[in-house]
């Protein structure tokens, strides 16, 4: 196991060819092993780095699907040039805490488009996710999203309260919440989350970065800045 992690570390630093050469020399069995034994705190970081690298590679295959929102399920500028994707759950306390970070980013940048993907993985949250998408179909996604987190946790009572506070046509929303387009969207989001290797919410995508967890305002802002730099480099700007 140690040798596997050591080779993985070298692969990240020098590339897989360099790691293979290093391993072939036999030095991976002594010097590298000793280094890793002296620095065991690096192992979780290495595993996370490898997971992120694999997720970024997988993102390339589904990028357009990931950044294309369910109609109306957007916070911020729906035509914005900068895109942040969030996989969220209404019964996730870290998602609730991240709402303030997202709102702050949107307030600071009129070009930011936050694509929200409803991924109901906590018990009792599917009803809220369905109603959120029904709200999107009425052009009132952001209002419901805010109300739901404020009134939660998600129960039939809080879902209805959030829907009414957001000004939804309640009868229409109830029908839309169980419609085929909403069911297909929830299944799609589950599939995308699995393909990207996410293990929980919140989870984020921006540029070529795939990010798991509540990384806070600073972490999201830095990721968006890096994504912007990547876009400029790619376009030759």
Count of separate DSSP helical elements: 11
Sheet with most strands: strand arrangement: 1-3-2-4-5
Anisotropy-based shape: elongated
Secondary-structure element order, N to C: HHHHEEHEHHHHHEEH
* Structural class designation: alpha+beta
* Sheet of most strands: 5 strands, mixed
How does this model look, in words?
The chain is α+β, with helices and mostly antiparallel strands. Helices cover 63% and strands 11% of the residues. A 5-stranded mixed sheet has the order 1-3-2-4-5, with helices on both faces. Helix 5 links the parallel strand 2 (82-88) and strand 3 (112-118). Residues 1-10 and 12-22 have low confidence and may be disordered.
A few lines on this structure:
The protein has helices at 2-14, 16-25, 31-38, 42-67, 93-108, 126-137, 141-151, 156-165, 170-177, 180-195, 216-235; strands spanning 74-76, 82-88, 112-118, 203-206, 209-212.
Mind sketching the topology for me?
Blueprint: H1 2-14, H2 16-25, H3 31-38, H4 42-67, E1 74-76, E2 82-88, H5 93-108, E3 112-118, H6 126-137, H7 141-151, H8 156-165, H9 170-177, H10 180-195, E4 203-206, E5 209-212, H11 216-235
Helix pairs in contact: 1-2, 1-3, 1-4, 5-11, 6-7, 6-9, 7-8
């Amino acid at each position: 196991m140690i040798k596997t992690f050591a080779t993985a570390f070298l692969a990240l630093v020098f590339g897989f060819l360099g790691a293979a050469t290093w391993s072939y020399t036999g030095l991976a069995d002594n010097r590298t092993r000793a280094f890793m034994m002296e620095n065991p705190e690096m192992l979780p970081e290495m595993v996370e780095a490898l997971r992120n690298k694999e997720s970024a590679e997988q993102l390339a295959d589904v990028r357009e699907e990931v950044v294309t929102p369910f109609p109306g399920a957007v916070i911020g500028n729906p035509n914005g040039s900068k895109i942040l994707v969030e996989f969220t759950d209404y019964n996730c306390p870290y998602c609730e805490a991240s709402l303030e970070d997202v709102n702050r980013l949107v307030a600071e940048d009129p070009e930011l488009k936050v694509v929200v993907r409803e991924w109901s993985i906590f018990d009792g949250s599917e009803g809220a996710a369905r109603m959120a998408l029904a709200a999107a179909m009425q052009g009132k996604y952001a209002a419901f999203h805010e109300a739901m987190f404020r009134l939660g946790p998600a129960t039939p009572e809080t879902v209805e309260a959030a829907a009414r506070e957001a000004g939804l046509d309640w009868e229409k929303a109830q029908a839309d919440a169980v419609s085929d387009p909403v069911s297909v969207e929830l299944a799609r989001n589950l599939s995308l989350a699995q393909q990207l290797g996410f293990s929980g919410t919140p989870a984020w995508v921006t540029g070529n970065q795939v990010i798991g967890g509540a990384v806070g305002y600073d972490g999201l802002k830095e990721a968006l800045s890096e994504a912007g730099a990547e876009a400029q480099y790619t376009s030759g700007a």
